[in-house]
Each structure stands twice: as C-alpha cells, then as structure tokens.
Amino acid sequence: MSSTTFAAAFPHPDWQHFWVGSIGHWLLTRGLHIVLVVIAALIATRIIRWAAAKISQRFDRAHRGDAVVRSETVKHRQAVASVISSVAIAVLYVAMAMDIVNQLGLPLGSLVAPAAVLGAALGFGAQRIVQDLLSGFFIIAEKQYGFGDLVQLSVNGVSTDALGTVEDVTLRVTKMRTSNGEVFTIPNGQIVKSLNLSKDWARAVVDVPVPTSADLTDVNNVLHKVATTAMHDDDLPELLLDEPAVMGVESIEMDSINVRIVARTLPGKQFEVGRRLRALVVAALTHIGIASPAGTTPTTAAVESEPATGDQPHSPVASR
C-alpha cells in the first residue's frame, strides 16, 4: 500500500500530511516490514517448539508400546531434537536481527569494529556460558545421558552429588528431578563427572545381614531359592536380565554377617528390583526362623558395573 493511498483513507489534512511525509512513508514500508518480520519469527518459534514437542511425544509413544524402558536410541534422539529446536530458534532470531538492522539503514560493515570490541569485553564474562555450550555439545554427541536416564552428577564446587532422572537436556543446562519431586537445573560446564545408572543395563546389590549364630549353609540355600523364585515372581521377570546370583559372605561384623545377592536389571529398574528382592529375602529368612540382627535390615545398592552404596537420590545440587 502506497503512502498516497493510505493517506486517502484519512481525510483529515494533518493525517494526510503525516502519511505522505517521510516518517509516514518509512512506517508504511520499512516499519511495516520490521513488524511483519517480528510476527513471522514469533510464529516460526511456536511452530518449531510444537514440532519438537510432537517428535518427543512420538518417541514416548513408541517407547511405551515396544519396551519397559526407553532404548538408548530413543533417549538420544529426544535430546538431539531438543537441541536442534533450540539452535533453530537461535538462528532464526539472529537472521531476524540482521534483517531489522538492514531495514534501519545501519550498514553491517560499520558494526564489525564495535562488535569486535563488545565481543572482547563480553568474552571475559561469557566464558562460563561458552563452557556450558561446549560441554552440552559433547554430552549430546557422546551420548553420555538422555531423556529419562537416572544419573548421578558430580558438580564442580559442590561436595555432594546430585542423583535424579533427567527431564531435559540442552546445550547449556541439564534439568533433573529427584525422588522427592524437586527439579534442579545444572549448568553443563559445571559437571565434572556423570554416572549413568540407566545405560544398557544396571545391577541391584542386596546385602543381607544375618546373625553370626546362623547356619550359613541354610542361609545360602534359602537365598538360592529366593533367586530362583524371583524369576517366577509376578513383577520381577520382566525387569531381570538373568537370575540373581548369591555372591556369599561380603563382610563380617561383631554380631552379624552380610551375605550379598546381585541381580542384573533393565536400565533404571535396579531400585524397584532391590526393594522386591529384599521383601522376598525377609519373608524367606523369617519362614525358617532366621531374623536379622537387632537394628539392621537388608540394604540395597544399585550401580552399572561396580557396587556402590545408596538407594535413593540424595544431596541435591542447588539450581544455578
């Protein structure tokens, strides 16, 4: 629409003079172009986020229909979809900013020197952001963890680790939820060690304390029966990769002996398997008249490869 046509729609002389003038002409041409570009960028942002959400939901539906737990491929693809959507939105906004600068009549060549000075000044303050982005890139590229993984993260400057389920992974941060329902946001650049408890397979380790007066032969026989029974339990067969193994005496204390059982499980299901195994062990030992020493109960650890203590997420890391 030309400025003359637009002025005809406003019969008042002042408005006609305004729209025919240089300011009105700029608003009807370049100004309108900038508004349309901004609106188009906002609409495109919503479309990108909607598409990413649909892709994630499709992966979730495929996971629920095919397996008890997400496959490594599904978890990685969800993380990649999230990162691609974030990068696409960032590129879109950069292109929009360059177009707006061009419409404002600012030559991009003249902005190179100021941008270099500004970049050098911000570089010192943005080192942590760059570190977060690079760390996030390698987390995604190396498939260290993805959506739905149970991970334990050691954070720089924090004495205790964070243990929880990954809910979101971007190039800058990792969001995870603990067993208490708390969501923590951890910058990727601050993660110094990641322990994935849900990759490929996991292992539940159950330490059973028995009195020193108990007959270890009877205890071992009972635990072997529990291991066999576990493969025919209502809940455990679909979570176990093979029959639990009785490892024998793990440690000796003043008034008790700890006997260990280990079981390979589907990723992320080690805690559930550990709880069920403990219930079966307690019932079996009670049936033959063997009770745990006073003040002790069967304990469980869950790890990927080597045993470690701790059953529940603990010691959350403060959000940054």
Give an overview of the whole structure.
This protein is α+β, with helices and mostly antiparallel strands and 320 residues long. The chain has three domains: 104 residues, no CATH class; 65 residues, SH3 type barrels (Roll), CATH 2.30.30; 102 residues, Alpha-Beta Plaits. 48% of the residues lie in helices and 20% in strands. The chain contains eight helices and nine strands. Helix 3 runs antiparallel to helix 4. The radius of gyration is 30 Å and the shape is elongated.
List keywords for this structure.
320 residues; Alpha-Beta Plaits; four-stranded antiparallel beta sheet; SH3 type barrels; alpha+beta; five-stranded antiparallel beta sheet
Rounded mean pLDDT score: 76
N/C terminus separation: 50 Å
By DSSP, the count of extended strands is 9
Cα-atom Rg, whole angstroms?
Answer: 30 Å
Number of helices: 8
In this structure, how is the largest beta sheet organized?
Answer: 5 strands, antiparallel
Spatial shape: elongated
Q: What portion of the residues fall into strands of 2 or more residues?
A: 15-25%
Order of helices and strands: HHHHHHEEEEEEHEEHE
Structural class: alpha+beta
In spatial order, strands of the major sheet run 4-3-2-1-5
